Amino acid sequence: MKTWNIRAAAVMAAASATLVAAPAMAQDVGAIAEGLTGQLTSIGTLAAVLSFVLGVAVAIAGLMKFRAHSQNPNDPSNKMSTAFILMFVGAGLVAIPAVLGSGITTIFGDGADQTNANDGFGNSLQ
To answer: Are 122 and 46 in contact (CB under 8 A)?
Structure first.
């Protein structure tokens, strides 16, 4: 009896949700493209922020490797080369947002739509 009441309540909730739901409005191709452009701009900003944050984290890991190597230079897991590699990778990740616009200019020329970390990737699609 108890499971019947739960099933009846679930059916009633589903029926009321379908009656209250708003009708789906069809969009034209332009509205869909504008929506995608806005989402791509957000994705570009997210990529720039993630690369910057990951770059700082990797650079801090490189500094920690430098410190570990200075405390115990004979430990094979604390190689100086690992610290340098982590520092260079961190610097490269931090530099990605600043290089986005100049990379597009280099590949496509001065007349190309440019993008950077502030405006995002989506503005090159407009």
So the answer is: no
Alpha helices in 109-126 (DSSP H): none
The b-or-e profile of 31-67 (16+ CB within 10 A means b, else e) is eeeeeebeebbeebbebbeebbeebeebbebbeebbe
Written as six digits, the tokens of 35 are 């929506």
H or E segment to which residue 80 belongs: helix 80-108
Tell me the pTM. 0.56
Average pLDDT over the chain reads: 76
Q: Cα–Cα distance between 76 and 106 in angstroms, integer?
A: 42
Q: What residue segments make up the domains of the chain, in order of their start?
A: 43-126
